[in-house]
Fold this sequence. Notes:
With 556 residues, the protein is an alpha/beta fold. The chain has an eight-stranded parallel β-barrel.
Amino acid sequence: xxxxxxxxxxxxxxxxxxxxxxxxGGVDPAGQxxxxxxxxxxxxxxxxxRWRIAGAxxxxxxxxxxxxxxxxFYGSPWTHAxxxxxxxxxxxxxxxxxxxxxxxxxxxxxxxxxxxxxDLLAQLGELVDTATAHHVRFTFALSPGTSICYSSTQxxxxxxxxxxxxxxxxxxAFSIPLDDISYTRWNCPxxxxxxxxxxxxAAARAQVDLLNDVQQNFIExxxxxxxxxxxPTEYGDLTDTPYKQILRDxxxxxxxxxxxxxxxxxxxxxxxxxxxxxxxxxxxxxxxxNYPVNDYAQTAGRLLxxxxxxxEPGLSDHLAGIVSNPMNQAAASKVALFTIAxxxxxxxxxxRNASWRRAASYLTGGDVEGTKALLVFCDLNHLAPTFGSQPxxxxxxxxxxxxxxxxxxxxxxxxxxxxxxxxxxxxxVTAPDTIRATVTDRxxxxxxxxxxxxxxLWGKAMRAGLDTLxxxxxxxxxxxxDARERMEGFAEQASQIRSVPGENRVEGxxxxxxxxxxxxxxDVAAEHDEFLGLPPLVNVSEGKPATQxxxxxxxx
Length: 556
């Protein structure tokens, strides 16, 4: 027999090939649904278009209570069709939470008092129904902090009316984000009379007053609701302040508090940090992880396709859950979201590279060559920035390792060095066509189109660079010059491709393997210059402001 579990959303699957039987069981409806999702994954394609399944005995349950996404980015919100697709995807990856909080939905933030127009309300209703069908908790977030008068009865009535309209649609989970607002001023003079002069402590008193009111007089008086969620104004640090002290001591203990880590985009999240955050807020925090969101300057021109990483095993003991803030590109976000769902389901068993491969396989419908090509492409889009100058995940680690090995072999005079790296460069060139032929998610192909175009050109530039080196080794000056010109031509074409206008809050030149692939081309050019007897170039502006159009000059 198969062991059973009594854990929420847990399930068991047993496939007995000897008896020819399949048995499924779930602790609750979600567990039953997840049992079916796992069973689907166990089937493999056989000959003559027949499906096969091996014997299996599985008992499984999630380690984190809340797992999913928060559509909380700035810039172009997802379309209705993208949201419907995402909710179905969450069912596939056993994610149970979607928080509707797009910053650029005017009725969510700037015009929060106003009811949704009938057509938008109908769309929200469809999202709620779709989420329910896939056992995803649709969480409606309303962000009034930019203009609310906390002491105003009229404003509180408007807020409750907005929440009630969502409740009537079937929403049972609600959030009041109070992030990205100022507490150095009030939105109305009356708040100063009630809560005191503006500041950390006064802001906390006002917010707690509002949130406890919503929890106790709206959430707790309506059937089927989940505890209220909130995002504090101080959401990304571990410093104790009067603001946090008041939340810790007076916020209703059932209210979930979201926390982004030690920064807006943290380089890591450790168990010790999570413990400290939970102490500061007086409850296990609910992590809003700003990955793979790409709405800030350091992400201009980027898709963020690295797997989830540097979040410590054991976090499940100290968190209410994790939701990811994804990219404006909904379908392209699936690579990272797949791996985040893996981590949140079982953080102690999470293996980043294995999860990454499964994400690629999911998007290609299991096509082996397509999966390989997609992983090459994801490696070239691996960089994950922070708000600072240093990324928390490096760019193109696979390509960087291959290039490092190449130069070592090349300098030794190893004749196989160029052909070996050229084989990988060919994979870069052909990856876009293979991806377009095998990825079954058309939304992903639309999102990644410009990046796929640039990848092919950068791959061709890399191959031309290797041709340059091969010609230098043959002492063929004409061939070396021709190859270098081709290299620079392809690189120039690639550098003209930009992100899609209007898709992101910040736009820019499409970045592919930057700092790795382009650096390789620079090193090839330096080798060719040396072959021509030209002096090497040095950066004369390094460490000081630039003073001329080009800050590179010959090193005489």
